[in-house]
Every structure is written in structure tokens, then in C-alpha cells.
Amino acid sequence: MPRFFAFDLETTGLDAERDRIMEFCFIEVDSGLGPIGEPYAALVDPQRPIPKKVQEITNITQDMVQGRPAFAHHAPRIQRLLQDTVLIAHNHRFDVPFLHAELVRAGHPGLDANQPCIDTCVIERVVNSHSLEATFQRYMQRAFDGAHRSQADTEATLEVLRAQLRTHAAVLGEDITRLTQRDLARLRDPDAEERVWLDHGHRFYEDGAGKARFAFGKHRDECVHDHEGFLRWMKTREFPADTLVLVDRFLEEIMKPKTAQ
User: Fold this and answer.
1) Which helix (H) or strand (E) holds 125?
2) Phi–psi pair at 133, nearest 5 degrees
3) Which range marks the domain in which residue 145 is found?
């Protein structure tokens, strides 16, 4: 049985390469979603100014984070905690790449591109609609106070997930190990081809035959090794670091046969 960690991040912006985490919360839970131990939560110094709009949304000011340890201080513990775990989040497509980028920036391996994650936002798309506040109010029949702070959002995500499991047991079942994003994709479309993502930005995937393919752009679903020019164009743009590592690898693989001639 894997370990389960619900988590949420507050960040200085929306770009995982340029912006930084300024608060996090992790809550370990058992397979019945009961909390194990105390939340691991902290404000961290993002080592850059917090935009005024972000301060207004989160109520996290520059003074609150000034002088606190940077994320790198917490990174070793977080990396250890998340080995062989299933994450629980609301909109993991935002939080997981941010967390991965910060761990790598601190000198750690980070998260797998196919990190298992139970996403209450994805579940809601299967059974209803999205935003955390609206979802919380729909299930809990009360307003969500304290939004946009990591611990409040993490605890709200767990409350929503518990309610989703109670309300939609006939669709979702009782085994939370079968609620990761890949499981829900199969639930929505049992005949869909299963993809193995190669990067956190989901620009590349591996098909069932083990071939790397584009997941975006004019060459979507085409083999990456057939489009050297497009890969070189990608090198001139600001894609995430792990995506560009793959671009370099694919270009090397394309060039090997040429140099051998």
C-alpha cells in the first residue's frame, strides 16, 4: 500500500520556471483519508518580491516571508517524504510541476513525470465542475473561509475528496489507490490509448510501442525523431528545463545515425 500525501502550494506567480513557492502544506493520510501525524506546513522565503496582486489573493505579505528559510532548506525532507507516494491535490497540473522544479533547483531528483496523483479537480470534471471554493461549498453546504492559504486549501481538498467518495461511491468505488489521474482517464474513456508522459509540462509522451511523440503543436501525436527542425525551434523558446533536456536527447538520437555515415 502506498503512502498518501495531500498538499497545496502558494506561489509568487504561475510560471514554474520563473516564480517560486512561498508556502506549502503536506498532510499524510491513510487509505480512509484519516490524517496521520501533524501537517507539515511552512512559509518560505521565495527570494523574490511577491507581486501585490498575489499578496491580495493569498494575504501573504513580503514581511511574513522575509528572513524565513528558503524552500531549499525543506527540500531534503520533502524529497524523502514523497518517495513512492500518491499525492492528493486540487489541480495537480499546476502544483506538481512547481514542486518538481523547486526540488530539482535545490539539487534533488524531484518527481516522476508520471507521478501518481489523486486530483479532486479531475474527479470533479468526471462527476461535476471545478474551482476549490465552489466545489467545497457544493459538497459541504457552507462557504469556504481561508482560501488561498496552503493549509486551509489542503484541508479543504481532503474534505472535498471525502465527500466525493461518499457521494459518488457507485462511480468512484472505495479504493483511493484507483483514483489517480490515469485511473480516471480510463474511467472516462476505457478505449483511450494510455500515455506515459516524459516531462511535467506534458509536451512529450511515449506511446504503447515505446516511441516518443509530441503532445502539442502542429506535429501533435507524431514521432519526435521525424521533426528535427521543430525540436531545434523548441530550443529557441522558453520551455521548462526538463522539457529542454528531452529536446537535447532527441536531437542527439537524430544526429547519431548522421555522424555514423
Assistant:
1) helix 120-127
2) -60, -45
3) 3-188
